[in-house]
Amino acid sequence: MLARLRESVRRYGLVENLVVRRVCDDRYEVLSGNQRLGLLKEMRLLPAPCVVVDLDDSHARLLAQALNHIHGEDDLGLRAELLRKVMETVTGKEIAAILPETVGSLKAIALMGQETIAAYLQNWQQARAVRLKHLQFQLTPSQLEVVEKALELQMKRAYQEKGDSPNIRGTALYLLCKKYIEEVNQK
């Protein structure tokens, strides 16, 4: 991934600003873009364009989680520690509005390492069960129009059956696929 990022920066330059916050007069903490900053330093392409935000520690951690798209599996121990610190000053509801987890799964993750091994494993299983997976599709404009219309028609049912998923459009897509599979199996 680093080689791909290097090639992208070489070809197109930095197309996404770093996100930083001031920690003292002449020092900044990078909340999003550490890999890009490292490459820019390596390629001697500084200074780098930045968006500067004014946030306390908890909100800086929360924003960093929201901005840094972690691919693969998170280190749940580190994520639990981060969430415990953030939840000291930010409500679960506020966090769930930004991150793709439910309040319950956020609390379960935050409790990891704080309980017996049995409770830890139970919380870990609960957190894994509600972890959202991301799919990415490339559609032509006419295909996108059909998909958007189908999702729109399915949204009312999705709100009723969303369960523990905070992603209504994802639930609508799931329900459409489930209905299709049921119809195919009935034939």
Description of the structure:
The protein has 187 residues and is mostly helical. It folds into 3 domains: 1-54, Conserved hypothetical protein from pyrococcus furiosus pfu- 392566-001, ParB domain (Alpha-Beta Complex); 57-134, no CATH class; 141-186, no CATH class. Helix content is 59%, strand content 9%. The protein contains 9 helices and 3 strands. The protein has helices at 2-12, 34-42, 57-67, 76-87, 92-98, 103-110, 117-130, 141-160, 168-186, and strands spanning 18-24, 27-32, 50-53. A 3-stranded mixed β-sheet has the order 2-1-3. α8 (141-160) packs across α9. It is globular, with a radius of gyration of 21 Å. The model has no long low-confidence stretch (mean pLDDT 80).
Write the layout of secondary structure elements.
Layout: H1 2-12, E1 18-24, E2 27-32, H2 34-42, E3 50-53, H3 57-67, H4 76-87, H5 92-98, H6 103-110, H7 117-130, H8 141-160, H9 168-186
Parallel strand pairs: 1-3
Antiparallel strand pairs: 1-2
Helix pairs in contact: 1-2, 3-4, 4-6, 5-6, 6-7, 8-9
